[in-house]
Structures are given as C-alpha cells and as structure tokens.
C-alpha cells in the first residue's frame, strides 16, 4: 500500500496519521502465535514454581495474558521485543507492506530504529497497585527517549495494535499540530512525561485504530495511552524508522537497514544476526540515553 497525497499532507500537517488495513490477519498471525508461545513458556515456568494455580490454556490470545496476570503480575516481567527476539517479530519489523508505507514518508534508504516495543495493556481493573508506565503511558513526545544527537533526525513512530484499539480497550490520544513547537521539557518522575506546567493546551484526539492498521506519529507529537476499560488485553507493537545513516537516538543499540534502493543487498534478512546484535548490547543502555 502507498499513502495517498492527501494522507501524506495530513501527516505533515497534523503530526499523526491513522491508516487502516495496512496488514491483514495473515500478516499478523505469526507474531501473535510467537507471542502466545512466549506467554505459554512464561506461564509454565511460573506454574512449576507454584506461582500460578492454572495455565488458562483454553483462553484466546486476547484474554489469556489477563487471566495469568490477574494471578501473577510477574508473567509480564521484562516482556518486550528485545527480551525474546522472535523470528516472526523480526519479519514484521521489515515487512514489505509496512516498509512501503514508511517509504512514502522517508524515502528509500530506511532503517528500523532500535526503539521497538510490544505492550500488553491489561484491563485497568486488574492493574497492579504500583503504576506501570510501560502499559499506561503518560503524555510524552517520543523524542524524549532518544539522545539529543538525533535532534535533526526524522524518527517516525509506527504504532500497530494486535487487537482493535478503541476508547474502551485503551487506544492512544494524540495532540494534533503541536509537533511544530519541537521538544517540550519532560521529567522522569511518573514515567518519562511532559512537565505538567508545559503541557500544550491542544485538544487531544482519540487515535482509535483497528487491528491491521497503523498510527503514525511525528517524534514531537504529544501522546499518551488511555486506560483499558475492556476485558481483553490491548496488545500492540510500536516501532520507529529513520533514514539510514541518520543518528538513531540510540547509537549503542542496533539499527538495521530494511530497504535500500541504492544497495538492496544491505537489507538485513537474517534474524540470527539481528539477535546477535541485540545480545551484544548491555541491558540498561537505552534508559541512559533518555533526555531525562
Ligand atoms: O501503547 C501505548 O499506549 C503508548 C505507546 C507509545 O507511547 C508509543 O508507541 O510511542
Ligand atoms: Fe510514545
């Protein structure tokens, strides 16, 4: 799929764009199956340790993690793309249908940025007493978690839900047009978030997005995740892309080419190599590169 001129202009004017039907169920199923296996493995370990009373094997993907989490929040400890480094997830990062959309905004020399997450936002009623800012993300701009040497880099966020993201399941809210102001001061307390007295006054827009769609955001667009009032887990993946060679904002973590018109053979197709690149990174380096 290519973005239309209207969509490109809308992205450039508003600082975000919602694009439905980029991927179909068939494209997403390998990632969902891989996540389901990861959750199953975690559940079996916790069950063996006596921390879970049941495995909830009959529950569908959208529900099982919530059932497990309700009994044992440890199921989600450290759960992210870089912790399990799945082959299907690697294929999604460079998926042709996704990269075609990226190309419409950034040209044909493209790298996948190392800031990449999978999030399992559980129903709010199950949320632990301790706030979890990875699941319930407060107002921020994505540039706040990049190093300042990437200020001039266009790093675009591609957020995609693995279930329908609605006001009920806990989609994002975005502030349109505000990106033109550039970086707004953030603070680390309360999850990397915009200083409350600096919060722009723009009226937020609900960024509902069906499964298979994308929410694309400028790195200066303020956004947050709203609460999950449903009974299902709001699974989502958020990725970022930048032009190959531009500072990624995470120089100590692996970026890799996903498209190149000038050197097609430079595109990384080997999931094993991607894993090795991540395994060579020390654990806490990403956090140190945040601005606050
Ligand atoms: O998934 C969410 O609710 C927020 C994610 C986010 O902030 C991002 O993808 O940049
Ligand atoms: Fe974000």
UniProtKB/TrEMBL annotation:
Q: Provide the taxonomic classification.
A: Bacteria, Bacillati, Bacillota, Bacilli, Bacillales
- Which InterPro entries does the record cross-reference, listed alphabetically? Phytyl_CoA_dOase-like
- Species this chain originates from: Paenibacillus glycinis
Q: What name is this protein filed under?
A: Mitomycin antibiotic biosynthesis protein
Gene3D superfamilies of this UniProt entry? Answer: q2cbj1_9rhob like domain (2.60.120.620)
Region (Disordered) location: 244-267
Give a single Pfam family match.
Answer: PhyH
């Amino acid at each position: 799929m290519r973005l239309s001129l209207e969509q490109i202009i809308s992205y450039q004017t508003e600082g975000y764009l919602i694009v439905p039907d980029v991927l179909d169920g068939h494209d997403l199923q390998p990632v969902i199956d891989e996540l389901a296996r990861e959750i199953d493995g975690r559940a079996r370990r916790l069950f063996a340790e006596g921390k879970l009373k049941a495995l909830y094997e009959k529950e569908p993907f959208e529900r099982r993690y919530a059932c497990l989490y309700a009994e044992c929040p440890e199921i989600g400890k450290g759960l992210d793309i870089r912790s399990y480094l799945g082959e299907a997830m690697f294929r999604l990062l460079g998926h042709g249908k996704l990269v075609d959309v990226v190309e419409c905004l950034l040209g044909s020399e493209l790298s996948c940025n190392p800031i990449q997450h999978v999030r399992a936002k559980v129903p709010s009623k199950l949320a632990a007493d301790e706030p979890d800012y990875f699941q319930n993300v407060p107002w921020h701009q994505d540039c706040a978690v990049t190093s300042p040497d990437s200020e001039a880099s266009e790093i675009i966020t591609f957020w995609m839900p693995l279930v329908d993201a609605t006001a009920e399941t806990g989609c994002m809210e975005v502030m349109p047009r505000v990106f033109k102001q550039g970086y707004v001061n953030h603070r680390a307390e309360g999850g990397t978030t915009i200083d409350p007295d600096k919060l722009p006054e723009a009226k937020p827009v609900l960024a509902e997005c069906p499964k298979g769609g994308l929410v694309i955001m400028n790195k200066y667009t303020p956004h947050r995740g709203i609460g999950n009032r449903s009974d299902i887990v709001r699974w989502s993946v958020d990725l970022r892309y930048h032009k190959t060679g531009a500072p990624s904002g995470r120089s100590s973590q692996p970026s890799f080419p996903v498209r190149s018109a000038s050197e097609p053979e430079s595109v990384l197709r080997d999931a094993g190599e991607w894993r090795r690149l991540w395994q060579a990174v020390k654990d806490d380096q990403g956090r140190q590169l945040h601005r606050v």
